[in-house]
Amino acid sequence: MAKKMQVTLTVNGETRDVLAEPRELLIHTLREQLGITGPHIGCETTHCGACTVDMNGKSVKACTVFVAQADGADITTIEGLGNPDGLHVLQEMFREHHGLQCGFCTPGMITRAHRLLIENPNPTEEEVRFGMAGNLCRCTGYQNIVKAILAAASQMNQKEAAE
Amino acid sequence: MNDMTPSREQRIANLKGMGASRKRVEDVRFTQGKGNYVDDIKLPGMLFGDFVRSPYAHARVKSINTEAAMALPGVIAVLTAADLAPLNLHWMPTLAGDKQMVLADGKVLFQGQEVAFVVATDRYIAADATELVDVEYEELPVVVDPFKALEPEAPVLREDLEGSAEGAHGPRRHHNHIFLWEAGEKEATEQAIDASEVVAEEMVYYHRTHPCPLETCGTVASMDKVNGKLTVYGTFQAPHVVRTVASLLSGIEEHNIRVVSPDIGGGFGNKVGVYPGYVCAIVASIVTGKPVKWIEDRMENLSATAFARDYWMKGRISATKEGRITGLHCHVTADHGAFDACADPTKFPAGFFHICTGSYDIPVAYVGVDGVYTNKAPGGVAYRCSFRVTEAAYFIERMIEVLAIELGMDAAELRRINFICKDQFPYQSALGWEYDSGDYHTAWDKALEAVGYKELRAEQAQRIEDFKAGRTRKLLGIGLTHFTEIVGAGPVKNCDILGMGMFDSCEIRIHPTGSAIARLGTISQGQGHATTFAQIIASETGLPADSITIEEGDTDTAPYGLGTYGSRSTPVAGAATALCGRKIRAKAQMIAAYLLEVHDGDLEWDVDRFVVKGAPERFKTMKEIAYAAYNQAIPGLEPGLEAVSYYDPPNMTYPFGAYIAVMEIDVDTGEHEVRQFYALDDCGTRINPMVIEGQVHGGATEGYAIAMGQEIAYDEIGNVKTGTLMDFFLPTAWETPHYTTDHTETPSPHHPIGAKGVGESPNVGSVPAFSNAVHDAFRAFGLRHSHMPHDHWRIWKIARDLGLHG
Amino acid sequence: MIPSSFEYHRPSDLAAAIGLLAEHGDEARVIAGGHSLIPLMKMRMAGATHLVDLQGLGDLKRITVSADGISIGAMVTQAELIAHEGLAAAVPLLREAALQIADPQVRNLGTVGGNVANGDPGNDMPGLMQCLGATFTLEGPDGSRDVAAREFYHGAYVTARADDEILTHIRFAPPAGGYAYEKQKRKIGDYATAAAAVLLTRNGGTVASASVAMTNLSDVPVWSQAAGEALAGSDCGDEAVRSAVTAMLADIDPQQDNRGPVEFKRHVAGVMLARAISRAWSRA
């Protein structure tokens, strides 16, 4: 076992110091050391996207990042998107359009969709499907997920136009 | 009564009862990452378990040396079969009447089999320690082909059964034979077929695949040595059965075991069975006195737990030259892997495969299923399927297509003239089922009309001409399916799991202020039970669904039930819920009668209240009645308002549907594009249309994956070739087709609310629809049948074998 | 899936990185985005006692585009490569191809350098770099050397790079003419069943020059000189395409795997190449 190292992460706006072996996977650090259990572990080989988090402004799969690599990173998880008093519009639209069933892929799915809409605020259906290709869902068949993301984009754009 | 009284319509809408597309109550939590899945559970002092698994498909275990592993700091224990044997836990019973090794006892029988269980202070150390366990193997000859397994000289796989000529389901005729299970009339069927004008024969293989929910299986077992209580959290689709099994295996009295299914990240049949990981975690917790977590990784999930299908179905179907079917004969060679761990009701070793006469009025039929051992993982679970119904539907829907070719008929018309007619229900099938209700012709006509079937056939004819003239390299396939499911297992007189009758249950407690909690014996894995069961109660009791909490999965609080799989929650637990609601209402009626000072019979039910007949201004709402139940001393009535119901269904339910897939196929690359997918489902009474549509989308996507690429493949020495999601096909949003859903509504006559269940229909129906589309594209060029999955190279091979590559 | 343990190093300059490799010899491995290496480490099919993370080497994150040549730093991610407008204008082939690699999250971390350096025959960038006639710059304890992409690959995971060298830059001349990357895959994000990269220049109705490279059809990427030659001077008609395909088929050596048998892969390789030629020609 290698020596543990101190790693500093900014998670959902809060700076957190953790002591971890370099080999510890970021997903385990988040889930087990920091108690952030929204991102899940589905496939462990970068295929399913259940572990998707935002790292330094980019969507990444936390199952395939060593915590050592993430030292100094700014990370946003599903827990950083809404709050108990108010859902993020994406969360709201996933509910409205039945874009989830078992809920296991949902945190990764919404976290990815959140970044996608920042990168492309007005996507076509095809762009949503292409942009979400790193996230697997076994329950919904995606149709309602795509609908939810398009609806969220539309609401966010309307809100922006109104402001 | 005053002007403020809401209208009847408003009161109905306010309930969000049956028929409403109620938004899911689960989603607020799930969308915020606040679900609570088994790997989210963290108990003080928790240890982690990890398996040493066999790299070989068949080998003798000569020795296991755990010294180096035990020497690693942080390793608490390494369990082997030798440690479990004194507890008699080195083997465990399977759901199918067989037994299965928990840890390798002298030999291993499939790649990935559990050999030793390492327990350590964290999962990294546990993983490191598995590498340090030194296992010496002596390789043995491997059998992965079920036909070769039955050859006289085939190696003996199950030495523990050597010499036993009788299995759990009758005589075994070979050392690798498990059972022969039969239904129908063999001789009469053969005679009818032999005497027929037209006979079509085909071997239809439904390949081995896997349910692969996004969350793998796992457990946290926690033995509290002070009070003698064992708590087991886990991915259990049937928590109560797990408690009973855990009690029988461990000797711990059942009241001292609490099994909890937390949120489950998809099940699809993967989480019905009991796996060695559960047993080892429990034993490890008992031994160490600490909580032990075991979570399998994806490779372990795909290679060791719960395969599905793997049925070789040899069929003969006969008809008059006008196309009236005269008989159906089927022999199945069923590859069960190393142990018979199929998740079927005890008396049905081939599940409900004998629903394979499908939607058709077939006068005589026979089915024989031979179960066979091979050096593959055990399982045989119902992957979004009611016990081999997917196999049955695929078989009959392929046989119909092959018969249509033999007859030179349009396959839609062939189906139409053979459908069971509406007035034949309840219908006795040749294989022994009583179909409850159906209206197949109406559904079929609606489906053909919706997709523009005639125009599609015209377009296809033109396409064939264009292809022959060299103007295109793409073919058009129209895949038809009319399926009949059998779900809602099942009547206790013939359906049980390990002796437990397949009833289900609901307990409702109405609180004084008119809100409620209901607990059921089922467990949601994404089906939205917290939403839909509240809708049933709302309609039955007149309390708004929004004020009803649904709780499942904790055996300390929920009434005993057999769990959620096989589309049984709505047909069985849904019925229990409705009946339980009616018990509540019956007592409420007595309370209302007391309050209104009338006889019970003078009251009538109106949405959310009892009204005095002929005096509409005199009523008591359910909310008022609830309060009265707790604050009034009513002569002859106990205080309180609660009830419990256990429902033993009198029959199965028989949902059906018409699915049509339209597919473009690139002859040169084997690639495809699903241009259109239409799904009409008739699941009887519809509780929540939004949830039903979601189930159809999801099930059809699973079906798409299975038909077009998903498989668990082995090489000839038993290595799993599809162990990660790189090779095991799960479609993304990019590949997944767009779905159009539709419905007809033919309620079940024997079900309290007429609901039939829908979760599995889309998997059952879509696989043959996609597969038939592929076959249909090549029909004009002489294709009869080609095995799934229809991935690129297999479609390409069809084209090559038909000479379409020039 | 838990990797074995290792010591982690994050050097802030190239010299320090090379020094670490020299110090730890074959116990050390370089990690860029890690999206090839980490999955292998998690399956314990690859290991390293010392992991040298190159993310601190800012010089390796640069893309420069000029008329003289294009340089891509090894630590440029696929996403950055796709997003770079200057690069896309100069070499549209790369954006077209990179969009067919993996998925958005993986492209955010997976680097071009990692993709070319690790020698996985399934990777797309090696064939593309061979098609472009790129040169890889390797820095080691004895200084810097350049190796042509077409000379770099010796076998699956076996390349011209020595253990103590780091692939730092990829350089090539901006290509002229038409381009296409045709990739058949089982699903989005998958490695190629067969893929063809084609660059073509046109002289009136004639192909002036052509470069053809194939991916995942041998244990190394295959730059088919003969296929290019079959096209050069032709009218790019059916017969020329057939000759190019025939020539290419003599150069590839696909193996059977879950994507299909050899015969299928050879057929699809031909289809991909024919389609790539046709599209490149239409853009030339």
From TrEMBL, chain A:
High-level lineage: Bacteria, Pseudomonadati, Pseudomonadota, Alphaproteobacteria, Hyphomicrobiales
Entry keyword annotation includes Glycoprotein: no
Organism this protein belongs to: Zhengella mangrovi
Keywords, sorted A to Z: 2Fe-2S, Iron, Iron-sulfur, Metal-binding, Oxidoreductase
GO molecular function: 2 iron, 2 sulfur cluster binding; metal ion binding; oxidoreductase activity
Highest taxon of source: Bacteria
Name of this chain's protein: Carbon monoxide dehydrogenase
Domain called 2Fe-2S ferredoxin-type: residue spans: 5-81
Statement: the UniProt record of this protein carries the keyword Protein transport: no
TrEMBL record, chain B:
Keywords linked to the UniProt accession: Copper, Metal-binding, Molybdenum, Oxidoreductase
InterPro entries reported in the protein's UniProt record: Ald_Oxase/Xan_DH_a/b, Ald_Oxase/Xan_DH_a/b_sf, Ald_Oxase/xanthine_DH-like, AldOxase/xan_DH_MoCoBD1, AldOxase/xan_DH_MoCoBD2, AldOxase/xan_DH_Mopterin-bd_sf, CO_Mo_DH_lsu
Region (Disordered) location: 739-764
Catalysed reaction equations from the record: CO + a quinone + H2O = a quinol + CO2
Span of the signal peptide: none
EC number of this enzyme: 1.2.5.3
Domain of life according to the entry: Bacteria
Residue intervals of the Aldehyde oxidase/xanthine dehydrogenase a/b hammerhead domain: 32-141
Alphabetized GO MF terms: anaerobic carbon-monoxide dehydrogenase activity; carbon-monoxide oxygenase activity; copper ion binding; iron ion binding; molybdenum ion binding
Cofactor: Mo-molybdopterin cytosine dinucleotide; Cu(+)
Pfam family, one: MoCoBD_1
Function: Catalyzes the oxidation of carbon monoxide to carbon dioxide.
Entry-linked PANTHER family: ALDEHYDE OXIDASE 1-RELATED (PTHR11908:SF132), XANTHINE DEHYDROGENASE (PTHR11908)
Assembly mode: Dimer of heterotrimers. Each heterotrimer consists of a large, a medium and a small subunit.
Name of the featured protein: Carbon monoxide dehydrogenase large chain
Organism in which the protein naturally occurs: Zhengella mangrovi
Lineage of source species: Bacteria, Pseudomonadati, Pseudomonadota, Alphaproteobacteria, Hyphomicrobiales
TrEMBL record, chain C:
Annotated coiled-coil segments of the chain: none
Domain FAD-binding PCMH-type: 1-177
InterPro entries attached to this UniProt entry: CO_DH_flav_C, CO_DH_flav_C_dom_sf, Diverse_Substr_Oxidored, FAD-bd_PCMH, FAD-bd_PCMH-like_sf, FAD-bd_PCMH_sub1, FAD-bd_PCMH_sub2, Mopterin_DH_FAD-bd
Top-rank taxon: Bacteria
Protein name: Carbon monoxide dehydrogenase
UniProt-listed PANTHER family: XANTHINE DEHYDROGENASE SUBUNIT C-RELATED
Pfam families: CO_deh_flav_C, FAD_binding_5
Keywords: FAD, Flavoprotein, Oxidoreductase
